[in-house]
Amino acid sequence: MSTHGNHNGHSNHTPPILLAIAGFDPSCGAGVAADLKTFAAHNCYGIAAITALTVQSTQGVRAVHATPTATLRAQLDALAEDANIAAAKIGMLANRANAATVAEFLDKNKFAHVILDPVSRPTAGDAELLDSAGLKFVRDELLKRATVVTPNIPEAEFLTGLQVRDVPSMKAAGQKLLEMGARAVVVTGGHLEKPTDVLCDPAGVETFGGDHVRSQHTHGSGCTFSSAIAAQLATGQNLRDAVILAKAYVTQAIEKAYQTGKGAGPLNQLFRFHQEPPARGVHEVPQHGMHPAAEPAAH
Amino acid sequence: MSTHGNHNGHSNHTPPILLAIAGFDPSCGAGVAADLKTFAAHNCYGIAAITALTVQSTQGVRAVHATPTATLRAQLDALAEDANIAAAKIGMLANRANAATVAEFLDKNKFAHVILDPVSRPTAGDAELLDSAGLKFVRDELLKRATVVTPNIPEAEFLTGLQVRDVPSMKAAGQKLLEMGARAVVVTGGHLEKPTDVLCDPAGVETFGGDHVRSQHTHGSGCTFSSAIAAQLATGQNLRDAVILAKAYVTQAIEKAYQTGKGAGPLNQLFRFHQEPPARGVHEVPQHGMHPAAEPAAH
């Protein structure tokens, strides 16, 4: 992290810069938009390489346009050559070619923190967010390049081949992912009656419970959770505290969510910024004729 | 604007929903990322249809991958069928086909506010952000479908064919754009020694001066300005006040900018949220063992 002088004589501090590698959701509940909002909520600056444009709304994913591999590679290279990246978070990859491009990128650029959310299918809609060759590549190649992997229960089942139904089987899946090469695993159980996350790393296994928030507005909770872990690690937390803080953050973002369309709404990742909405949505209203911006210019 | 109950029994208010139609800048200084941050800074919820993926960093634009027209149309339709859109902001369009798709979309969906930023070339890099057939389409077709058009000086020159060098010629260009079908025009003069914006609408012509902020971190200032106008209009300001407030906001976002790469950094659109950064980047640190999220689950 470095501080650079601004040419106006002020010196504004550069926060940690976090890279999201993921798909774009136009409804902005999931994917890169969720990642960028989560980074901002943790006072980090987000940059992003887009692996795919999805066609989706709060009612589900309708279609996927994968980014051409050369464009994805060019985006990644341009960013890594320019910015000092404190952590990378990987979400939707669309297909094997893009997953392989990301693996090459991680081999070229050694980041302190690489958080892999092995996104495969959306909760709503029947579109494929990663093709089957891509899923195998994630399991066999990308898993071991990540510092933390955050599968939900269906993703843990695919990656391990185990049946995962409860906390004991989540622990077994987490252990198996460590054996398969993951350095640390958080199996997320947001869909359990009592949502419980299981952290497995070489230090041991730990479970974290939480209260179930009754809300349909949970679109993007997986993206938000893994991005919050990335932000906490980049700002100096250890993994255990990062998981605890990320879980508490996601719970609050669901509690503060609001409807944005006809279906499952997004989390409110920026809830911390919006607790006291000012009148008419404006923070500082300059007095006309007194604020510099309002002074008539010489004609 | 409507309020819906959340299933958890709370009823969180839905803010105005604003649609950005623009390109994606991976360095997140300009384009859709700048638009979404600006909407959020004004307590609005942003959604976005991406017209192109650019390859760029703070050092300039290297390449453009235009979104296939069918994908752009599908994104737009999915959003408009799902959300209640208070204002649309249009930025980079990449090519004539995508510009025409946006014109059809505006004909199908009548929005109260349509802010058109007629983006043509980047400040840094020699990539084309809109092809020449697209520029003609914007001039001949899209201009008259907007409620406010926000060209900078080079864009005003292209659209009108006039030479624009100073405030009198900015006024002449603004008047000509009204004659060409625009309903209101703001010619932005951020590159003038004394940055001055000129507002032309049927009520008359007005100029707004401002202080020049000496900073290289102005990447995305045009996107940010037009998105701030969209947010102010959507939250009830009249156009004159929207322009004054947007200009003051952009000035502050430049003053609060920081370096993110080796070149021209982005504005800090979220500066209002970051005035008192907490220790270690975390707002609420739950007490381990006391916060619900940190309680060990039943094993």
SSE arrangement:
Two copies of one chain form a homodimer.
Chain A: E1 17-24, H1 31-41, E2 45-57, E3 60-66, H2 69-82, E4 85-90, H3 96-108, E5 114-116, H4 132-142, E6 148-149, H5 153-160, H6 167-179, E7 185-189, E8 196-201, E9 204-209, H7 221-234, H8 239-255
Helix pairs in contact in A: 1-7, 2-3, 3-4, 5-6, 7-8
Describe this entry's structure for a reader.
- Two copies of one chain form a homodimer.
- The first copy, chain A, is of the alpha/beta class.
- Chain A has a domain at 17-153 and 213-268: Ribokinase (UDP-N-acetylmuramoyl-L-alanine:D-glutamate ligase).
- In chain A, 34% of the residues lie in helices and 19% in strands.
- Chain A is globular.
- At the A-B interface, helix 1, strand 2, strand 3, helix 2 and strand 9 of A face helix 1, strand 2, strand 3, helix 2 and strand 9 of B.
- Average pLDDT level of chain A: 88
Spatial arrangement of strands, main beta sheet of chain A: 3-2-1-4-5-6
Helix content of chain A: 25-40%
In CATH terms, what is the architecture of the domain at 17-153 and 213-268 in chain A? 3-Layer(aba) Sandwich
Oligomeric state:
homodimer
- Percent strand of chain A: 15-25%
The end-to-end distance of chain A, rounded to whole angstroms, is: 45 Å
Structure summary, number of beta strands of chain A: 9
| C-alpha Rg of chain A (nearest Å) | 20 Å
Reported for the largest beta sheet of chain A, the result is: 6 strands, mixed
Name the structural class of chain A: alpha/beta
CATH superfamily of the domain at 17-153 and 213-268 in chain A: Ribokinase
CATH topology of the domain at 17-153 and 213-268 in chain A: UDP-N-acetylmuramoyl-L-alanine:D-glutamate ligase
